[in-house]
Design a protein that fits this description.
Number of helices: 10
Oligomer: single chain
CATH topology: UDP-N-acetylmuramoyl-L-alanine:D-glutamate ligase
Structural class: alpha/beta
Distance between the termini: 42 Å
CATH architecture: 3-Layer(aba) Sandwich
Number of strands: 13
CATH class: Alpha Beta
């Protein structure tokens, strides 16, 4: 049986330190700490499993934090294939204050040696034989080329495995021409890509729609643009399809991992062969739901696909 494969090349342990306030140049007392397996790819796999997709994780881990992360995945019963590395898996630190919001500190992570990367590629090649879809999510580790995602997309496509991509910066720019099935930039990432490609600048809905349409032309696939509480876009230039929808109104606790939950719901909709409108509605509903939960946790229940279908029926089709 085939299953979605999530490649998390730069995973992390996430640690949330709760403080009353941050005082610069003074001692800050940590009132509480919570730790969980994190990183974008791990978050996507967690939500995919919750949504019923039966995913498999592939990730490099090393050091004491890598061992802690592997233990956490086993506790969640999240199937994972670990490729051991000599470096130490990073720990991301989130400082949550009572009234000042959050501070986030993300180390760059370990550097993969050429030997470790070749070992991971061999494991990936085998894993692709049983993959229904490949999700590439998160930053690239140090030591690998910026064109790595582009090369992996082409490898997966040769194996007839479609690819979903969520990254930013130079890695995104290099990967777009390789033709992923779906790309999920947020508005900042899309704007950065457009400026780097000489398409101009802008954060308005019209500008983002133009950038998303151009990205879709180049990938020949889907582009899903998340914009927080503002209306999101789902674009497919080949199908002349441009859908816009507004996320459900919520009072968020935070935004950490919301984009990963949104992406997981979009992937589940692809696997279930739902309509584009249902895909967009499901993605926004699950992404919004994630903002109401402590980071790294899952809800007891999720909205049913029938609810997405009802709401999707009222989506308006937007054109340039």
């Amino acid at each position: 049986m085939k299953h979605p494969l999530v490649l998390a090349l730069n995973p992390s342990m996430d640690a949330d330190w709760r403080v009353d306030t941050v005082r610069w140049e003074e001692k800050n007392n940590v009132l509480g700490e919570r730790r969980w397996a994190g990183g974008k790819g791990v978050n996507v796999a967690r939500w995919l499993q919750h949504l019923g997709a039966n995913p498999r994780l592939l990730l490099p881990l090393g050091g004491s934090s890598g061992a802690e992360l592997a233990t956490a995945l086993r506790a969640e019963r999240l199937p994972a294939r670990v490729v051991p590395i000599r470096g130490t898996t990073r720990t991301n630190v989130i400082i949550s204050t009572r009234v000042q919001g959050q501070l986030r500190f993300n180390p760059l992570g370990p550097e993969l040696s050429a030997v470790e990367w070749r070992r991971l590629e061999r494991v990936l090649t085998v894993a692709l034989r049983r993959a229904s879809l490949l999700i590439l999510s998160g930053s690239l580790p140090r030591g690998v080329a910026v064109t790595t995602y582009a090369r992996l997309i082409r490898q997966a496509r040769r194996a007839c495995v479609p690819v979903v991509l969520d990254c930013d910066g130079p890695a995104l720019r290099a990967a777009v021409p390789a033709g992923p099935l779906l790309v999920k930039p947020n508005e900042h990432e899309l704007g950065e890509w457009a400026r780097a490609e000489g398409l101009g600048a802008g954060r308005s809905g019209a500008a983002l729609l133009r950038f998303a349409t151009e990205m879709s032309k180049r990938t020949r696939g889907w582009v899903l643009v998340s914009r927080g509480a503002r209306p999101a876009w789902l674009v497919n230039a080949r199908q002349n399809l441009r859908l816009q929808a507004t996320p459900p109104p919520v009072r968020p606790l935070h935004t950490l991992g919301a984009g990963d939950a949104l992406l997981a719901a979009a992937v589940q909709a692809l696997l279930d062969r739902r309509s584009p409108a249902e895909m967009l509605e499901a993605a926004l509903a699950i992404g919004s739901l994630a903002t109401r939960l402590p980071a790294g946790t899952l809800p007891r229940h999720t909205p049913s696909p029938k609810r997405f279908a009802r709401r999707a029926a009222s989506l308006r089709r937007a054109t340039e």
